[in-house]
## 1
Amino acid sequence: MLSTPNLLTFFRIGVTPLLIYLLTFGSPVPSACAALLFFFATLSDYLDGHIARSYGTSSMLGKFLDPVADKVLVTAALIMLAAIARQPRVPAWIVVVLVVREIAVTGVRAIAAVEGIVVGADELGKYKMVLQSAALEGLMIHYSYLHVDFFAAGLFLLWVATVLSVWSGVRYHVMVIGAIRAQHAAPKRAAAG
């Protein structure tokens, strides 16, 4: 339970309340601190997976908690960025689309697991996560520095991540439904043959 990858995952879950607290302020310093904290949290996501694979320290707890930690951190950040008292804000409908996609994919994963089907994350979902993380960094920084409008850049990346998110979610559902149908059709073909 206290392996390094699991500790990094617990770190990601543990910093979420601090991230939420920092995002309640609309000024530049707390915004920069929130962005820095989010950066280290997303870096810990990469590190825990790398360490678990490299040293063979993956565990069932880690496999369960890692995606939960990602969803908790990202969902909290998205909700706060839509609710924050500064202008401009992240459109709430984008947050709803992204959160509903995560819930739907989690649900279809659970159905697949009950059927004994393991479907790994697809490449598109990984690109979505990278873009989403970069977008959230810009949106948390919010202000312009060195002639870069971080909010505008972050919102553009979030739009792209939203399109990829919906696309990968639909592909994931189609893949799982196809695997379930194939699994159910195999005994019927064997009985008929």
Note: Helices lie at 4-23, 28-55, 60-83, 92-114, 123-141, 150-192.
## 2
Amino acid sequence: MNEPTVIRFYFCREEHGYLSNLARYPIEIDGRIWPTNEHYYQAQKFTDPQYAQEIFAARSATKAARLGQRRPDLVRPDWATLKEIVMLRALRAKFSQHAELALRLTATGHARLVEHTHLDSYWADGGDGSGLNRLGALLEQVREELRAAPTQPRQSSSSV
């Protein structure tokens, strides 16, 4: 039996870097254009509008990610429950608002998508396969949703 194809991604400049939340593909959610999925995701952790605005204005996705980690004392108490919902919303926006990305994602076939880094064992594989790889799983879900959609990519404006 053939092993399923695995596509590993992490760095934006690599072949499958468009799958990264740090890749610079703006998304529009609730009438606001976020520079990257990372900006959106990190800002949603906080109920403090000033801190969320600081994340929104971060000059890079890496900076937005750092800001999102800097203030654990301000993270909303329901974040553990909401984080995958927020991530899925961002991914749906990214792949419905960028037709070329939707095509690239669906072109991955049935490959297993793996964010490959030792820096994260929740969203990624932990670098050694022991991580949960939740980002990869959600990308696979979005890929299936795109395939099942009666029309190709459309604007998403649902709320969290």
Note: Confidence is low (pLDDT under 50) at residues 154-160.
## 3
Amino acid sequence: MKSTEIHIPTGVVQIRVSDASDGDFQVVSPAPDLSERRHAIASADWTWLKQVHGAHVVEVSNPGQHAGVEADGALTFRPSCPIAVTTADCAGVVLVAESGVAVVHAGWRGLVAGIVEKAAAQLLAAGGRPVRALVGPLIHPESYEFGGDDLEVVAKRYGPSVRGATADGGTALDMPAAVTAACQAAGWPTPDVGPCTSSPSYFSHRVRGDQGRQTVVAWIESDAS
């Protein structure tokens, strides 16, 4: 599990990104020990989402608020409110601002729908500036053959950098480039982008048909804690 701490004026943003060795965090058919696994990372109740590749973002003010709702992003300005997304090729994006933190589940449909920019706008509406963006493990172009018509939809929104090639020369979507473009369009610095989910260290639905999911979870710890 990768751990990151980012200091903001209201406290410290804690970010955890799991890998396959940390176990399965899927919420569709959760493992019996999922709650225990979550609380070993962050002891407060988590806000997890029923992800639908859309652009709905919820604001969380209490631990566990909105858990299980249909959404692809969550943000919080309050301490001790873990917010999480799960992935197995899509991008788990964390946006840290001076006022709070957002997590986003971004597949290509969510990117085109503007999920990153919407979460960013809601985060910045509370005041403060962008601080940092991170992206968890996601599929890279060498492993992501992608249809031409859909690729043009993404390229129309984020530019030609999203066009990539697979390892054998096929047409591909460059998800790291697309997520980077979305973060920059939202006003954030170039994000730190995670490794490819083709590695057996991570779950990948597209490469191996994995049913498991890794998680990206973030929360704020107050200076007084």
Note: The first helix runs from residue 34 to 41.
## 4
Amino acid sequence: MEYSCIRNQIEDGVSIITFNRPDKLGAMNSEMMAETIHAIEKAAESGDVRCIILTGTGRGFCSGQDLNDRIKQNPGKKRDLGVTLDEGYNRFARKIRSLRIPIVVAVNGIAAGAGSSIALLGDIVIAAKSASFIQAFVRIGLVPDCGGTYALPRLVGRARALGMALLGDTIDATTAAEWGLIWKVSEDEELMADALLIAKKLASGPTKSYALIRQAIHAADTNSFDEQLDFEMQCQRAAGYTEDHAEGVSAFVEKRPAKFKGQ
């Protein structure tokens, strides 16, 4: 597939996927959605890629759904937005959730509506100091989607989640970090360098361990304490059989840096 709405490059085991519609503040249309899913699937299937960075260009990471795109497809008509979610955003969210490799999101500017929800799908989310997060759905009479209502209360608590969703106020990057919405804030000019540093560290680490860690953290959302203990046992059993675990132990004993292969 040739990309017209995103860029994708591979660097040291990291697939850097960039939303590339700066004139639209990274607004999501059907083409950009299809291209992003394709790039993520390509990275997941590649044995050489062990981490993904998702970012944007210009002043916007992703300003949400491109409403002009929707109007062009159905001029003057109402549209079943459930179908839009089922065929697009929900597929996208499930794809990221089920990845066997970690994903780092570098929020370079405005993350609004679905763009905010997409950002929060990342395993590690960092934001430029000038970035902002807006649950803008209420401004056009809609509800948060793409996993937004799932992520928000788990990250910031019920009170702040309701405040963000009902009011649609702009949350700056510093506040987002203070609330636990994201991992950290970077200076604007250092955002991609910081993201690459994190991603390359992950790409050189124990990939199967990362996958199991992600599964365990996600399972904790619904498991009881006893169920989670059992799940941890299953994950630890699987991790214990990996080559990377054996390498990690050997490196510890030999007092040298571990050379993980993701196996």
Note: The beta strands are 6-11, 14-19, 51-56, 60-62, 103-107, 110-112, 124-128, 132-134, 170-172, 184-186.
